[in-house]
Design a protein that fits this description.
Blueprint (H helix, E strand, L loop, with lengths): L8 H28 L7 H8 L2 H23 L2 H7 L2 H14 L5 H17 L8
Helix pairs in contact: 1-3, 1-5, 5-6
């Protein structure tokens, strides 16, 4: 039986890039949106402002994209490998926070990034990751 184009190796890599981008984009957008709402006390006005915030709407769109992409990834990947690989989001969010938002990152956080990457390398030991 012929595989669907979305199940090929190039598509799989593209889906992973999309997933990491969507999930990281959602987190960064929520941070920007939350910063923009910090002067408003939580209540009806805050909810109205959140629902009209471009950053919050971008985050919602990213979450929808992330959900759809994750569903496509899980069609061909084992959850036991795919879920740990999704932790690359922590690395990208940390780097984006540092580079894009000017946040300072402690040496312990950098160590955590190294541990996450090392863990992913251990998990991706060349075994078949398909379901």
């Amino acid at each position: 039986m012929k595989k669907n184009w979305i199940e090929g190796p190039v598509a799989n890599i593209a889906l992973w890039v999309l997933l990491i981008a969507f999930e990281s984009g959602a987190q960064i957008s929520l941070k920007v949106g939350g910063d923009g709402l910090s002067a408003i006390a939580f209540g009806v006005d805050w909810i109205r402002a959140a629902l009209s915030s471009v950053a919050v709407m971008v985050a919602v769109g990213c979450y929808i994209g992330s959900f759809l992409t994750w569903m496509l990834i899980l069609r061909t990947s084992k959850l036991s490998l795919a879920f740990p690989l999704s932790s690359l989001v922590f690395v990208v969010v940390l780097l984006s926070s540092w580079l894009g938002l000017g946040e300072s990152i402690s040496p312990l956080h950098w160590l955590g990034v190294c541990v996450i990457i090392f863990g992913i390398v251990l998990l991706a030991d060349g075994k078949d990751a398909t379901a």
